[in-house]
Amino acid sequence: MGNSALKAHLETAQKTGVFQLTGKGLTEFPEDLQKLTSNLRTIDLSNNKIELLPPLIGKFSFLKSLALNNNKLTALPEELCKLKKLETLHLNGNHLRQLPTAFGQLSALKTLSLSGNQLRTVPTQLSGLRQLDVVDLSKNQIQNVPDTVGELQAIELNLNQNQISQISVQISHCPRLKVLRLEENCLELSMLPQSILSDSQISLLAVEGNLFEIKKLRELEGYDKYMERFTATKKKFA
């Protein structure tokens, strides 16, 4: 892509606060963007070939939305965690194995998409995020859901298409969790904490495609309580 094209994009971004350059085969984060650190609210560089997010990402202090879906990122810089206004972060389809240590400092984060990466566990850093609404960790290599999940503030947690065979009973203590997606994992019925049914806020539990028949779920203690929540929620949105 020529310099003149990039320049035109930068000029538009300066006026709109939005920089979008997708599917252009970029191999690196455009350095020229640092001229706009105080202008930009949205950056979308999805469907490129970016392997590295430079530390200068931490300078975009007004950024609300960052999308880098379908790139070649293997790690994220700690500087990303300085983005105190960031509300939406889309990193689907990369090669991420973990999150930066200070990820919990992204205090405004509401939506986090990490589908199609190489995470092996639910990152403990997520428990510190107080504004979190939706977390998508589908299509990773997660095998178990640890105790720290109990502090997760999310309303929806998507763990579809992982390799989960164990879930901490602490998941029942998530204060705001309403939707839990666990489709196409490796769960035996005995490994599904019954407290999810009897003693949680969860009103939509999706568990198709595991190692048990769905009708067996209905025989579990607490299923009636779960159905009450499920029905009440359905009525609310009807």
UniProtKB/TrEMBL annotation:
Keyword Nucleotide-binding part of the UniProt annotation: no
Alphabetically ordered keywords of this record: Leucine-rich repeat, Repeat
Gene Ontology annotations for the cellular component aspect, listed alphabetically: cytoplasm
InterPro entries to which the protein is assigned, alphabetical: Leu-rich_rpt (IPR001611), Leu-rich_rpt_typical-subtyp (IPR003591), LRR_dom_sf (IPR032675), LRR_domain-containing (IPR050216)
The name this protein goes by in its record: Leucine-rich repeat-containing protein 57
Organism: Lanius ludovicianus
Underlying gene: Lrrc57
